[in-house]
Specification:
The chain has 11 helices and 7 strands. With 248 residues, the chain is α/β, with parallel strands linked by helices. The protein has a single domain, classed as Rossmann fold, CATH 3.40.50. Helix 2 crosses helix 3 and helix 3 packs across helix 5. The relative contact order is 0.18. The mean pLDDT is 92. It starts with a strand and ends in a 10-residue tail after the last helix.
Length: 248
Protein backbone atom coordinates (compact mmCIF):
# COMPACT_ATOMS: atom_id res chain seq x y z
CA UNK A 1 0.00 0.00 0.00
CA UNK A 2 1.29 3.45 -0.90
CA UNK A 3 2.25 5.89 1.82
CA UNK A 4 -0.01 8.94 1.96
CA UNK A 5 1.54 12.11 3.32
CA UNK A 6 0.87 15.78 3.95
CA UNK A 7 3.40 18.60 4.26
CA UNK A 8 2.21 21.03 6.96
CA UNK A 9 3.95 24.33 7.58
CA UNK A 10 3.74 28.07 7.99
CA UNK A 11 3.87 30.22 4.87
CA UNK A 12 7.32 31.01 3.41
CA UNK A 13 9.07 28.01 4.92
CA UNK A 14 10.15 26.40 1.64
CA UNK A 15 7.16 24.11 1.12
CA UNK A 16 7.07 24.69 -2.64
CA UNK A 17 10.74 23.77 -2.88
CA UNK A 18 10.16 20.62 -0.84
CA UNK A 19 7.12 19.71 -2.93
CA UNK A 20 9.04 20.06 -6.20
CA UNK A 21 11.99 18.10 -4.83
CA UNK A 22 9.69 15.23 -3.84
CA UNK A 23 7.81 15.42 -7.12
CA UNK A 24 11.11 14.84 -8.95
CA UNK A 25 11.36 11.35 -7.41
CA UNK A 26 10.04 8.67 -9.79
CA UNK A 27 7.97 6.93 -7.09
CA UNK A 28 6.42 10.04 -5.49
CA UNK A 29 3.48 12.18 -6.57
CA UNK A 30 3.32 15.41 -4.58
CA UNK A 31 0.56 17.93 -5.27
CA UNK A 32 0.53 21.57 -4.23
CA UNK A 33 -2.02 23.34 -2.03
CA UNK A 34 -5.37 21.83 -2.96
CA UNK A 35 -7.61 22.71 -0.01
CA UNK A 36 -7.63 26.50 0.16
CA UNK A 37 -10.20 29.30 -0.01
CA UNK A 38 -9.07 29.87 -3.61
CA UNK A 39 -10.74 27.23 -5.79
CA UNK A 40 -8.22 27.83 -8.57
CA UNK A 41 -5.64 26.11 -6.38
CA UNK A 42 -7.16 22.80 -7.45
CA UNK A 43 -4.99 23.41 -10.51
CA UNK A 44 -2.06 22.42 -8.32
CA UNK A 45 -3.14 18.83 -8.81
CA UNK A 46 -0.21 17.25 -10.65
CA UNK A 47 -1.14 16.83 -14.32
CA UNK A 48 -3.57 19.75 -14.60
CA UNK A 49 -2.78 23.11 -16.13
CA UNK A 50 -4.63 26.38 -15.79
CA UNK A 51 -4.45 27.19 -19.49
CA UNK A 52 -5.81 23.86 -20.76
CA UNK A 53 -9.55 23.14 -20.85
CA UNK A 54 -10.35 20.00 -18.86
CA UNK A 55 -13.61 18.35 -17.87
CA UNK A 56 -11.57 16.24 -15.44
CA UNK A 57 -10.41 19.41 -13.68
CA UNK A 58 -14.01 20.64 -13.56
CA UNK A 59 -15.00 17.36 -11.92
CA UNK A 60 -12.22 17.69 -9.35
CA UNK A 61 -13.31 21.21 -8.48
CA UNK A 62 -16.91 20.05 -8.07
CA UNK A 63 -15.94 17.16 -5.78
CA UNK A 64 -13.66 19.38 -3.73
CA UNK A 65 -16.50 21.86 -3.28
CA UNK A 66 -19.16 19.30 -2.33
CA UNK A 67 -17.18 16.58 -0.54
CA UNK A 68 -13.63 17.66 0.46
CA UNK A 69 -12.95 14.39 2.32
CA UNK A 70 -13.72 12.36 -0.78
CA UNK A 71 -11.59 14.74 -2.84
CA UNK A 72 -8.57 13.90 -0.69
CA UNK A 73 -9.33 10.20 -0.26
CA UNK A 74 -10.28 9.24 -3.81
CA UNK A 75 -8.39 11.77 -5.91
CA UNK A 76 -5.58 13.81 -4.34
CA UNK A 77 -4.23 10.92 -2.24
CA UNK A 78 -5.13 8.12 -4.65
CA UNK A 79 -1.85 6.23 -5.05
CA UNK A 80 -2.09 5.01 -8.64
CA UNK A 81 1.34 3.65 -9.59
CA UNK A 82 3.18 5.65 -6.94
CA UNK A 83 4.68 4.39 -3.69
CA UNK A 84 4.02 7.71 -1.93
CA UNK A 85 1.47 10.40 -2.70
CA UNK A 86 0.85 13.66 -0.89
CA UNK A 87 0.14 17.37 -0.89
CA UNK A 88 0.89 20.42 1.21
CA UNK A 89 -1.32 22.42 3.56
CA UNK A 90 -0.41 25.64 5.36
CA UNK A 91 -1.22 26.05 9.06
CA UNK A 92 -3.68 28.84 8.31
CA UNK A 93 -5.71 26.61 5.99
CA UNK A 94 -5.85 23.48 8.13
CA UNK A 95 -9.09 24.55 9.78
CA UNK A 96 -12.66 23.22 9.34
CA UNK A 97 -13.78 26.55 7.89
CA UNK A 98 -11.45 26.01 4.92
CA UNK A 99 -11.10 22.23 4.70
CA UNK A 100 -14.64 21.21 5.55
CA UNK A 101 -15.01 17.43 5.98
CA UNK A 102 -11.38 16.92 4.89
CA UNK A 103 -10.17 18.38 8.20
CA UNK A 104 -11.58 15.62 10.40
CA UNK A 105 -10.83 12.98 7.77
CA UNK A 106 -7.11 13.78 7.93
CA UNK A 107 -7.10 13.70 11.74
CA UNK A 108 -9.03 10.42 11.86
CA UNK A 109 -6.73 8.65 9.38
CA UNK A 110 -3.69 8.35 11.58
CA UNK A 111 -1.81 6.32 8.96
CA UNK A 112 -1.28 9.52 6.95
CA UNK A 113 2.35 10.56 7.36
CA UNK A 114 3.08 14.17 8.30
CA UNK A 115 6.10 16.12 7.11
CA UNK A 116 6.20 19.00 9.58
CA UNK A 117 8.31 21.59 7.80
CA UNK A 118 9.89 24.36 9.86
CA UNK A 119 12.19 27.23 9.05
CA UNK A 120 14.44 27.68 12.06
CA UNK A 121 15.51 31.25 11.25
CA UNK A 122 12.15 32.94 11.69
CA UNK A 123 13.58 36.34 10.78
CA UNK A 124 14.39 35.08 7.30
CA UNK A 125 10.88 33.62 7.07
CA UNK A 126 9.42 36.97 8.10
CA UNK A 127 11.56 38.85 5.57
CA UNK A 128 10.58 36.40 2.84
CA UNK A 129 6.92 36.93 3.69
CA UNK A 130 7.28 40.72 3.56
CA UNK A 131 9.05 40.54 0.20
CA UNK A 132 6.28 38.33 -1.18
CA UNK A 133 3.68 40.86 0.01
CA UNK A 134 5.70 43.66 -1.56
CA UNK A 135 5.94 42.09 -5.02
CA UNK A 136 3.12 39.56 -5.16
CA UNK A 137 5.71 37.00 -6.31
CA UNK A 138 6.05 33.83 -4.22
CA UNK A 139 8.19 31.69 -6.51
CA UNK A 140 10.19 31.89 -9.73
CA UNK A 141 11.34 28.94 -11.81
CA UNK A 142 14.73 28.94 -13.49
CA UNK A 143 14.65 31.24 -16.50
CA UNK A 144 11.87 33.36 -15.03
CA UNK A 145 12.01 37.03 -14.09
CA UNK A 146 13.22 37.68 -10.56
CA UNK A 147 11.47 40.74 -9.06
CA UNK A 148 13.32 43.86 -7.98
CA UNK A 149 12.98 44.39 -4.25
CA UNK A 150 12.79 47.62 -2.31
CA UNK A 151 14.60 47.51 1.01
CA UNK A 152 12.40 46.74 3.99
CA UNK A 153 12.00 48.73 7.20
CA UNK A 154 10.92 46.36 9.95
CA UNK A 155 9.48 47.02 13.37
CA UNK A 156 11.17 44.89 16.03
CA UNK A 157 7.98 44.25 18.00
CA UNK A 158 6.19 43.15 14.81
CA UNK A 159 9.04 40.70 14.20
CA UNK A 160 8.80 39.28 17.71
CA UNK A 161 5.01 38.89 17.47
CA UNK A 162 5.45 37.05 14.17
CA UNK A 163 8.13 34.76 15.66
CA UNK A 164 5.92 33.90 18.61
CA UNK A 165 2.87 33.31 16.45
CA UNK A 166 4.75 30.85 14.24
CA UNK A 167 6.28 29.04 17.22
CA UNK A 168 2.82 28.72 18.79
CA UNK A 169 1.45 27.25 15.56
CA UNK A 170 4.36 24.81 15.37
CA UNK A 171 3.54 23.59 18.89
CA UNK A 172 -0.17 23.38 18.12
CA UNK A 173 0.37 21.26 15.04
CA UNK A 174 2.83 19.00 16.83
CA UNK A 175 0.06 18.25 19.33
CA UNK A 176 -2.62 18.02 16.63
CA UNK A 177 -0.76 15.24 14.81
CA UNK A 178 0.55 13.44 17.90
CA UNK A 179 -1.14 10.19 16.76
CA UNK A 180 0.27 10.33 13.23
CA UNK A 181 3.72 9.26 12.07
CA UNK A 182 5.57 12.59 11.94
CA UNK A 183 8.97 13.72 10.74
CA UNK A 184 10.20 17.20 11.62
CA UNK A 185 11.84 18.66 8.53
CA UNK A 186 14.23 21.59 8.57
CA UNK A 187 14.20 23.98 5.62
CA UNK A 188 17.80 24.89 6.33
CA UNK A 189 18.76 21.21 6.17
CA UNK A 190 16.76 20.60 2.99
CA UNK A 191 18.77 23.23 1.11
CA UNK A 192 22.08 21.91 2.47
CA UNK A 193 23.14 18.98 0.24
CA UNK A 194 25.53 17.75 2.96
CA UNK A 195 22.83 17.35 5.61
CA UNK A 196 21.25 14.12 4.37
CA UNK A 197 17.82 15.61 5.10
CA UNK A 198 16.32 14.60 1.76
CA UNK A 199 17.48 10.99 2.21
CA UNK A 200 15.92 11.00 5.69
CA UNK A 201 12.61 12.15 4.19
CA UNK A 202 12.71 9.49 1.47
CA UNK A 203 13.35 6.81 4.09
CA UNK A 204 10.36 8.08 6.05
CA UNK A 205 8.16 7.89 2.93
CA UNK A 206 9.30 4.35 2.18
CA UNK A 207 10.90 4.98 -1.20
CA UNK A 208 14.42 4.38 -2.44
CA UNK A 209 17.00 7.12 -2.12
CA UNK A 210 17.57 9.11 -5.30
CA UNK A 211 18.84 12.58 -6.25
CA UNK A 212 16.09 15.20 -5.98
CA UNK A 213 15.98 18.35 -8.09
CA UNK A 214 13.85 21.48 -8.29
CA UNK A 215 14.15 24.21 -10.91
CA UNK A 216 13.50 27.10 -8.58
CA UNK A 217 15.33 30.39 -8.12
CA UNK A 218 15.99 31.45 -4.54
CA UNK A 219 14.31 34.81 -3.97
CA UNK A 220 15.54 37.55 -1.67
CA UNK A 221 19.19 36.65 -2.11
CA UNK A 222 21.85 38.53 -0.27
CA UNK A 223 22.43 39.06 3.42
CA UNK A 224 19.76 40.52 5.65
CA UNK A 225 21.67 43.77 6.08
CA UNK A 226 21.13 44.41 2.36
CA UNK A 227 17.43 43.56 2.46
CA UNK A 228 16.49 45.35 5.70
CA UNK A 229 17.50 49.01 5.89
CA UNK A 230 17.31 49.22 9.71
CA UNK A 231 18.99 45.85 10.30
CA UNK A 232 21.65 47.17 12.69
CA UNK A 233 18.99 48.84 14.82
CA UNK A 234 17.07 45.56 14.97
CA UNK A 235 20.26 43.74 15.99
CA UNK A 236 20.69 46.10 18.92
CA UNK A 237 17.08 45.66 20.02
CA UNK A 238 17.42 41.89 19.82
CA UNK A 239 20.48 41.69 22.08
CA UNK A 240 19.78 39.78 25.26
CA UNK A 241 16.53 38.30 23.91
CA UNK A 242 15.92 34.68 22.93
CA UNK A 243 15.70 35.79 19.31
CA UNK A 244 19.13 37.43 19.15
CA UNK A 245 20.61 34.56 17.11
CA UNK A 246 18.22 35.33 14.24
CA UNK A 247 20.01 38.66 13.82
CA UNK A 248 23.61 37.37 13.89
Amino acid sequence: MANRFIIVCAARTGSTLLRLLLQSHPDICCHGELITPDERRVLQVVGTKADVKSNVRDLLMDVRRTDPARFLRDFALYPGRFLAVGLKIKYSEFVPEVMGSAHDWVLENSDIKILHLRRHNLLRRHVSHQLALQTGVTMVLQGGDVPEYKSLHLNFQDCVEDFERVRAEEDRFSALFSKHPVIDVSYEAVIDPRSGECDRILDFLGVHRAPLTAKMVKLGRGNLAELVENYQDLQQQARGTRYAHFFD
